[in-house]
Amino acid sequence: MVRNEFVKSMGLGSILLMNPRILFSQNITNKMDTTMKHKEPKRIAPNYFEDELVDSASVIHPGEGEMLTLNNLSVTFKVTSELSNSQLGVYEISLPPHAIGAKLHYHRFMDETFIVSQGTLTIELGDGSQKAKSGTVVYVPRFTPHGFRNDTNETVVVTLIFNPSEKREGFFKGLYETLNEVPVNPEKFLKLYNKYDSFPVDVDNMIPTEE
């Protein structure tokens, strides 16, 4: 009786008396409205106009960069670990005729890319060897056995890119020192390889100066 008097006093008449579900649904709607009002605000995208820009680009011209030479095979450092914060290493290799760059090996923590700019490079991969002419790009992910050499009578120039670089300059300098020894010490060579994330496929056939 009290409920009926309340409904009549509110002017809702007999409609609500006949349909009590309307009041129930109205309560649910009110709760939904309250929930929606407390939703987390959308995240605002960063203001890129507030980025602090730096002028730290490096331009390395042809002929520039530290160079190591051994038996007419040269390595020129273009983008070093120091320059790239160890994120990238770029090195130009000049291979004289019939020179071996590296025998089959692989890396665990870095990828390697070959960009041939002069001559024809022979790339050894797990499924055999391929001839990479000037302009060819060869991408070698980590854990992929690979090696390279020059089987021609002309000089081959190739750019090697390591990502990350794993301080590859130290490897080349150590290689220069190790291969200058006669005879080459296999244990020292293997230790150098392993230190710089290089692992020969065949430890009995890993020294590039030997056929």
UniProtKB/TrEMBL annotation:
Keywords: Dioxygenase, Oxidoreductase. GO terms for molecular function: dioxygenase activity. It comes from the Bacteria. Residues 93-162 form the Cupin type-2 domain. This is Quercetin dioxygenase-like cupin family protein.
